[in-house]
Amino acid sequence: MADKKFQVALDLFTIEDAMRILEQVGEYVDIIEVGTPLMVAEGARAVRTIKDAYPTKTVFADIKVMDGGGEVPKSCIQAGCDMFSVLCASDDATLRAAIELAHANDVMVLADMCNVKNMEERAAQVAPMGPDYLCCHVGFDRQATGADPVEELKRLSGVSTPKAIAGGIKLSTFKAAVESEAQDIISGGAIFNAEKPGEVARQMREILDAYNASH
Ligand SMILES: O=C(CO)[C@H](O)[C@H](O)COP(=O)(O)O
After folding, report:
1. pTM of the entire structure?
2. What are phi and psi of 19, to 5 degrees?
């Protein structure tokens, strides 16, 4: 089986802050997420800057496309992203257009289940469209309810599309996330809000490497 990946979500507001965090954590991660707040604040320029600085890493633009699937992602693709997100809550036509555009440009798509209530049903509809990842995601505003993305991911176990997992994953819950069905484990605030982001990312990497070495 392919090695599982570690993704850092840079939910920050300036390219400078993102680069400062990356100096500390970049060496430990496989995928660098240009988080939604950073995309809104700095736009595709953030994708370009990060891809130029980390050309061997997968750069993910978390643009959460909800409409205009064949158009909205174009600026991020031109800026050099390797993957972007589209919402499973969007229309089928949006998902299909986004996936078609991405794959025509050798870019991957993460289809984000954020706030989808009927996850099993929607996953069965979206998976055949061919996204590269289906993401089980407890969004920021639902994290306070204590919802556990590892538990929620179990609802997608019937789907063969590789899965990603996100939503408040921290060092103490990272091992459970790695041991779940997810292929891509995403963590944001627990890393960039830490006193020593590099140390948290290093320990997360150690957990992932141990898992990958034994599977
Ligand atoms: O997409 C997001 C929020 O919509 C975040 O990037 C994702 O939830 C990961 O960040 P955190 O680990 O802080 O929850």
Report:
1. 0.98
2. -65, -35
